[in-house]
Amino acid sequence: MVSASIQTAEAPRVTGASLDIDGVSHGFELDGAVLEVLDDVSLHVAPGEFVALLGPSGCGKSTLLRLIAGLEPPTRGRLSEAGRPIEGPDPSRVVVFQDPTLFPWRTVRRNVAVGPEAQGTLKSSQGRIDETLALVGLSKFAKAYPHQLSGGMAQRVALARALVNDPDVLILDEPLGKLDSLTRITMQAELVSLWRREGFTAILVTHDVEEALFLANRVVVFSDRPARVKADIPVDLPYPRHRGDPRLAELRRQVLGLLGLDADW
Amino acid sequence: MSDLSSTPETRTGSIRLTLADVVPTVPRPLVDLVGLLAAVVWFAVAAAALGWEDVGDWPRTQTFAVAAGLIAAGILVVSLAGRWLGGVSRRLDRAGLWLIVLGLFFTLWQLASAKLGWVPLPFFPPPQALLEVYLDDFPRLGESILASVKLQLWGYSIGAVAGFLLGASIGWSQRAAYWVHPVLRFIGPLPAGAWLPIAFFAFPSSWSAGIFLIALATGFPVTVLTWSGILSVNPAYYDVARTLGARSRFLMLKVAIPAALPHVFVGLFMALGTSFSVLVVAELLGVKAGLGFYMQAAQGWGDYANLYAALLVLALLCSGAVSLLFAARDRFLSWQKDIVTW
Hints:
The structure holds two protein chains of two kinds. Chain A is of the alpha/beta class. Chain A is built from eight helices and ten strands. In chain A, helix 4 packs across helix 5 and helix 7 packs across helix 8. The longest helix of chain A has 18 residues, at 181-198. In chain B, 78% of the residues lie in helices and 0% in strands. The chains are: A alpha/beta, B mainly alpha.
């Protein structure tokens, strides 16, 4: 299925890359049998778009993110970024995972510096590292170790560690899933303003329908495993959005219906 | 006081409070009663040494009494002038009860051994006999200490480095694991002491044989723990590093090894214990220098005081080595949340 509707409302300075996912299927071998997790998924993301992927838990959304990140090759199908095939991980596509997965032996600043260090650009990136730390509001914690941070702070560091590389595509695998609801709301707003400011393409996997609708231009709903694209819903609301917007409530009802939860609403 | 409250903060940059920061400073009592009691007990140590005739010939009885008297006087001064001495007197606070017990022990030892002859001589010499060894046999004892330390350092360092490299390579490379793992399983659990008879004729000198045995005893635990450390690294760390542009060199040196370091430390700690026992056995049985050899000779000549004196030094050295290792650990692993203090 190819989605044609692209709703890039007003992402300011677009530096993001387009993503093309064509007929991707993927399976894991489990005790001799093949467990199919993705079934002929096609998805096209325009540069600078914010796309949220929603679906029942365990349906294979996170696997799709791993394929986009280049951490694994798909069993069938093609993935490409800005027209170039994805053949392996690349700092132009950075992942922020559900767990911050900070390196505990590195200070906050040195965690943020991992990307430049691995790419051999550490010396020229010092200014950028400080700038990114300031962007997520953690300049004062540059010298702290990960175990001294709260969950929200740690996830901010993980975000800074990704953003310092100026990614074309930011891959977000339930990055706010483990935060308390207040921190979550704050970080959702921060994520929107970061995206609007930096202009990267964002792919977000989440279980939270409201989060998806609050953040994304498009919400893609997946079926149960093996995951197929069930619906592709444009969210045609300007940013910054308001949580009380009646249009959001309407969309939420629609999405929940697609997820099989309409009876409860 | 300052050393108590400031070190944890400067080390980790965290905000950790000690009791001294929370409890308001109470003026110290005019007289420290525990300290006073300790001084009395240590005067008793001196008195016990001087008050009776020795049942044997120990030329350093007077020196011992003077030393005990000086310690007693020192404790007395600190416990009376505690108000003005700050740090020193706080340290006495913590050691106070131990000083009393130690003083009682010395008094009892003195009486039981040198004065009343309750314990069989010459197997249980009095404290002044040990003092005599330290004062009069120091050149020979010092030489033995140096020899032991040298042997231990060489053997342990070689074993630790080799074990680390071996463990890291089999943790990282399937091919290395294929070849090394069976050998490790077969040879590793064999106590290093079992090699002793072979080592002493296979090596050109008993010194090099000793280094080999200690390195072997050190290498095995370090290899296994480094290996398991690398295998237990959270695979998500590799995913994160790879998406940030890391290649295998970075993954090995900057992800796998730092993440494995806590395990490596456990290996080094375990290795320290086994290597000590191999050191002493090697020196008792073959190496013609060092504290083990000194003890062996002392036993042969019936110099039991020398035996105890050397044992005491050995205990201090082993404990000191562990302290050193822990200090190194605190430096390298300061990022860890909960670490055992030694």
